[in-house]
Amino acid sequence: MTNGDGKAMVASQGVVFGELKKHWAWLLLLGILFIVLGSIGLGMVFGLTLISVLFFGILMLVGGCLQLINSFKCKGWKSIFWHMLMALFYIFAGIIVICDPVLASTIFTAMLAIAFICLGLVRVIMALQLRGAKGWVWPLITGIISILLGGMILAQWPISGLWVIGLFVAVEMIIHGWSYIIVALAARSAA
To answer: What is the structure's pLDDT at 11?
Structure first.
């Protein structure tokens, strides 16, 4: 990795960070902004849940409308009926989500909890098949955590539908912010 004085390591870091070495402070500020916004989001998880679900509904509605418009430009295509039907499903689902974001958030949360439980079970099974191999316990631990998380969400359902999505978005923003800060500080030290 190095030729004894660390020059190869510094050169490879320069390639990794490129122009970020000069502008690391902007990434640092962006990271701080994400942490602040995520922290604010932790204080208003219900509102963040509704905003996230409404945004998803709007995306579905816009996507469905664009797909429907596109279907009129595809004359002669044998699958045009199915293309239009999918567009109508997107439009319908988007309208339902926009009209009742609370119901949509509870349904999404139940689906998320079930997905966590299923993924957790798969991880546990995989870990048990790998038993004896180095590191097999990590998929087991993450599988158990996923099952517990899904179970906790379902145990609180439908009330959990009012806060889980907002909580996940807020936590994701905080983690994202910290990762930007760490990368920015690494780029600064590489400069």
So the answer is: 47
